[in-house]
Write a structure and sequence with these properties.
Shape of chain A: elongated
Number of helices of chain A: 4
Low-confidence stretches of chain A: none
Largest sheet of chain B: 6 strands, parallel
Low-confidence stretches of chain B: 1-26, 598-603
Oligomer: heterodimer
Strand content of chain B: 15-25%
Shape of chain B: globular
Structural class of chain B: alpha/beta
Order of helices and strands of chain A: EHEEHEEHEEHEE
Helix content of chain B: 25-40%
Distance between the termini of chain B: 79 Å
Mean pLDDT of chain A: 95
Radius of gyration of chain A: 19 Å
Strand content of chain A: 35-45%
Largest sheet of chain A: 5 strands, antiparallel
Structural class of chain A: alpha+beta
Number of strands of chain A: 9
Largest interface: A-B, 20 and 19 residues
Number of helices of chain B: 21
Number of strands of chain B: 21
Strand order of the largest sheet of chain B: 4-3-5-6-8-7
Distance between the termini of chain A: 28 Å
Chain lengths: 163, 607
């Protein structure tokens, strides 16, 4: 099963490699990993998407908690949560295809943020599956490049992951 | 110069600018360079010995060491030896071991020792030099990413970036290494941090707290209650205890609980000594080379109380057939050790000592007692397994049996020696035949299985307990991996007794090749083995070669009577001897290979 593990970690050099190293050393898979400092610059928030059965996920959370730099973590998949991913796509356009691409972007509630006579850069956020759907909807040979942030998420309600 | 300053200069000749704020010492701030801060931290931490080897990046630190005598430096001959010696010092005393090595090869040489300590949860603080901060990342001379290399084999590590944070970092290192599940912590110190010309106020924090690190101590009351209820309802119970009992100083509680319940107890390789081996409730070690009775009792049990043990693969054998009838209670300070390989029914996260205390209280306060009839029936079965006498060996052999040497060592030392070992057959013979009756007496590399551990370990133990008998049980292959430390043993006058079970093979490798590779003894034999007597003498020690069984006892007595000499006893043992019983890799507890007929002569040709 897919799990989104959200981690508050000391914002110190090497903290990221401790997490990444743990996953490679113990043979856990990482689907995606995003990290940036929080409103408290001494802390970073890391969102990690992984897959595994309950036993593996339990071990992953225990092993992560064991890292000295990890302050707190939660498995977002355990409760109601919202997840979003940011994607930037550069799409090749022709006179004939420009309108069609624009309407696709509108349908998916994306934005065109750069335009040249032969290309668009599209910005889109949403659940990862929506971004997948958009990519599938585009003509395969029209995509020049895709940049995805990997999912990040937050729990619903007033409870939150903080100190 | 006022009187306070004179006093300071007398006691701290290395101190730099001194600011006297208050009266005599009180409230005053001492300014020190990084090198002196480091040494002062060690003093304030109560460190007795630092095991190390100098080099470019740590020269400032060594200069600071030169100016004092409180922290004694033990100069090893290879950094691996430093880590092992400090590790064994920690295992024997319970205090953290301290290692000091230089950058690059100094640090990489220490890695084997660090990983050894990590696998066995031994508190170590490793101070490694690093190239100066401005050149980090430039492939400077003797530069290596020590923090990166050691990351997977330390509990935590630090790179010091500011001399003002040095003392606090050292305090954190000791705090993390010694609390919770202990382990090695490395502090990497760039050379500019210890620059003698840069002095900063010194303050060693008495206490430290880290928001991201709060180890659990006491166990969950509800879980403990459930555990006690399950234990008292058991029909075929067994206690399985490990190194956590030794590390957590919980042997008294373990003994009290075991005797109060009258349950059989088995211990892991790391746990030996926490429960006295000669006691009738003790079934011997379990696992790959555990006793028949211990492994069978595990397999047939209905309730297992696992205390400070981690269900290592050498203990469990085939996981899918591990203890099929048992409900398992697991006490461990590390939540990640619980249900890692074997699913447990009642997990209790906490320090074993307070948890066992709580269990004892509950049992004593309640009216429930173990069912004595069921327990007697269980013991009857266990006694029938004991009758197999799985450790029996040919006592009439004309060759020296390695088991016999360990038995004689046990008798000569009255069971009171500190015994270190290397890794292989001799390690198993030591575990099976030296009946440890106190914790912290059995010093071996259990998790990582590091050949070369024994000799430097013996030196570390002897430094901690100069009046105790210290023996290193080893083999001719293992001992050569850190043989250079014989020189250290002479320099620091650590008279240890090396018991070399010399079978001219890497015995354990050869045994596996015999069992699993149709006797194809690939590379498990050394064509050339040094003359250990001459070697010992060359290093300034006493060497004794023993070739006849009847000479074993006398040689051991002679060696231990030479109180102030390191003695290398080279026992030429039966090269065909194997360690029994054995659960071969991938097999279950009840699927043991036993010696076919203990008295049958082994007429096998080996090579």
């Amino acid at each position: 099963m897919r799990h989104i593990i959200s981690i508050l970690i000391e914002n110190e050099s090497g903290a990221l490699s401790r997490v990444a190293g743990l996953f490679s050393a113990r043979g856990y898979n990482i689907e995606s990993l995003t990290v940036a400092p929080t409103e408290d610059p001494s802390l970073s928030r890391m969102t990690l998407v992984t897959r595994g059965n309950d036993e593996i996920i339990e071990q992953i959370t225990k092993q992560l908690n064991k890292l000295i730099d990890v302050v707190k973590l939660i498995d977002l998949a355990e409760s109601e949560h919202i997840e979003r991913e940011l994607m930037l796509v550069k799409i090749k356009t022709t006179l004939e295809s420009r309108e069609e691409v624009r309407s696709m972007v509108d349908i998916f509630r994306g934005k065109i943020i750069d335009v040249t006579p032969s290309s668009y850069v599209v910005e889109m956020t949403g659940h990862s599956s929506k971004l997948d759907a958009f990519i599938h909807g585009c003509a395969a040979d029209s995509i020049i490049e895709v940049v995805r942030s990997g999912p990040t998420g937050i729990s619903r309600g007033e409870k939150g992951l903080h100190l | 110069m006022d009187i306070n300053e004179v006093v300071y200069q007398t006691f701290f000749p290395a101190a730099g600018k001194i600011i006297i704020l208050g009266g005599f010492f009180e409230g005053s701030i001492l300014e020190l360079s990084g090198g002196h801060i480091l040494v002062q931290c060690l003093k304030d931490e109560g460190v007795e010995y630092v095991f190390g080897y100098p080099g470019g990046a740590v020269l400032h630190i060594y200069d600071a060491i030169f100016h004092q005598e409180d922290v004694k430096h033990i100069l090893v001959r290879h950094e691996q030896g430093a880590a092992h010696a400090a590790d064994a010092y920690a295992r024997a005393t319970g205090k953290p071991g301290v290692v000091l090595v230089t950058s690059g090869p100094g640090a990489t040489n220490a890695v084997t020792g660090i990983a050894t300590a990590y696998m066995d949860s031994i508190p170590l603080v490793i101070l490694s030099g690093q190239v100066p901060s401005p050149v980090i990342g430039s492939d400077a001379f003797q530069e290596v990413d020590t923090v990166g290399i050691t990351r997977p084999c330390v509990k935590h590590n630090f790179l010091v970036k500011d001399v003002n944070l040095l003392a606090e970092t050292i305090k954190k290192a000791f705090y993390v290494a010694t609390t919770g599940r202990p382990g090695p912590v490395l502090v990497d110190i760039p050379k500019d941090i210890t620059d003698p010309n840069i002095k900063v106020p010194y303050h060693y924090p008495e206490k430290i707290s880290m928001r991201s690190y709060n180890p659990v101590v006491s166990g969950h009351k509800g879980q403990i209650k459930k555990a006690v209820e399950l234990l008292l309802s058991a029909k075929r119970p067994i206690i399985y205890s490990g190194g956590g009992v030794v590390l957590g100083e919980a042997h008294r509680e373990l003994i009290e609980l075991t005797r109060l319940l009258g349950f059989p107890i088995t211990q892991t390789l790391m746990g030996l000594g926490a429960y006295p081996a000669p006691d009738p409730l003790f079934l011997g070690m379990l696992g790959m080379h555990g006793t028949y009775e211990a492994n069978m009792a595990m397999h047939e049990s209905d309730v297992i109380l696992a205390v400070g043990a981690r269900f290592d693969d050498r203990v469990t054998g085939k996981l899918t057939e591990f203890c099929p009838y048992a409900k398992i209670i697991h006490i461990d300070i590390d939540p990640a050790s619980i249900s890692k390989t074997v699913k447990v029914d009642i997990p209790i996260v906490g320090d074993v000592k307070p948890v066992l205390e709580q269990m004892l209280e509950l049992i004593k306060a309640g009216n429930l007692k173990p069912d004595s009839e069921e327990l007697k029936a269980w013991w009857d079965v266990i006694e029938s397994w004991r009758q197999v006498d799985c450790l029996a060996y040919d006592r009439d052999s004309g060759l020296i049996k390695p088991q016999y040497v360990v038995e004689q060592l046990y008798q000569v030392t009255g069971g009171n020696a500190y015994v270190t070992s290397d890794v292989g057959q001799h390690q198993m013979y030591a575990a099976q035949f030296y009946h440890f009756n106190k914790p912290r007496r059995w010093i071996n590399s259990g998790g990582l299985g590091t050949m070369g551990f024994g000799l430097p370990a013996a030196i570390g133990v002897k430094l901690a307990f100069p009046d105790a008998d210290v023996a290193c049980i080893t083999g001719e292959a293992s001992i050569q991996m850190c043989i250079q430390e014989l020189s250290t043993a002479l320099q620091y006058n650590t008279p240890v007794k090396i018991v070399n079970l010399n079978n001219r093979y890497m015995g354990m490798v050869r045994q596996w090749q015999e069992f699993s590779y149709q006797c194809r003894y690939s590379q498990s034999y050394m064509d050339t083995i040094p003359d250990f007597v001459k070697l010992a003498e060359a290093y300034g020690h006493v060497g004794i070669r023993v070739e006849q069984p009847e000479d074993v006892r006398g040689a051991l007595e002679e060696a231990f009577s030479l109180k102030d000499r390191t003695v290398f006893l080279d026992f030429v043992t039966d090269r065909t001897e194997n360690v029994y019983p054995m659960i071969e890799a991938g097999k279950a507890h009840h699927d043991m290979k036993l010696r076919v007929a203990p008295s049958a002569p082994l007429d096998r040709e080996l090579s």
